TrEMBL record:
Residues 14-251 form the Threonine/serine exporter-like N-terminal domain. It comes from Paenibacillus forsythiae. Belongs to the ThrE exporter (TC 2.A.79) family. Pfam families: ThrE (PF06738). It is a multi-pass membrane protein. The lineage of its organism: Bacteria, Bacillati, Bacillota, Bacilli, Bacillales. Keywords: Cell membrane, Membrane, Transmembrane, Transmembrane helix. InterPro entries: ThrE-like_N, ThrE_Dicarb/AminoAcid_Exp. This is Uncharacterized membrane protein YjjP (DUF1212 family).
Amino acid sequence: MNNAESGTTYEIIDLCLLAGKIMLQNGAETYRVEDTMTRMAASLGFPGAHSYVTPTVIMFTTSRTEQPKLFRIEERTTDLQKVAEVNDISRCLSQRQITSAEARERLALVDEAAHAYPVWLQIMAAALAGACFTIIFKGSFTDALTALFVSGLGYAAVVYLQRLVQIKFFAELTASALIGLLSFLFVQASAGAETDKIIIGSVMPLVPGLLITNAVRDLMAGHLISGLSKGAEAFLTAFAIGTGIGLVLSFVS
């Protein structure tokens, strides 16, 4: 392989790794990441490309004889808009509507873009979701208003604590304990009727619904390591929420 061919190969590998990194960091399923990377490589002249993806590592190579390139994922969030944009870029590349250089430019813009929604809007959405879930679980209108405030504070606590200590389990446990304490205090102050309804509605924005869905889909697609690891992460989140609520209720009851 001459230098020009080698340079082109490395550029294609970097392009595919960038696409996979963006998708995996923003909540895409493991099998979707692998499929997107191999499709992009095939459209650029490497139909024998192979990829191996876990929730924290991406490995990719354009052939069986080439050494795989590795990229480590250290931070994950949920931004399905970025996942959809990468999928769109991949389709355009496969259909020869854009070149690899144009794909790289578009992927760089997607990667550098800020989160789809600002934090204050996420907190407001979490507060509204908590109030709606309280009504769904047969809470009163007064309970829903209380949950509106409690769930907003709980979600804000998760965001702030995760930035402060960067330990997701601690942030979720502390936030759920705050939700349980606030719910109890509001009911004691006659600002709510049923503590359990307020708590259930308020913790729903913290429940790892996307993570559980991705874990099941990865298991069904045969990605056992990714499916089990995501399932374990979802279990830890559920355990943190339950422990935080349980600790507070055990002390106040």
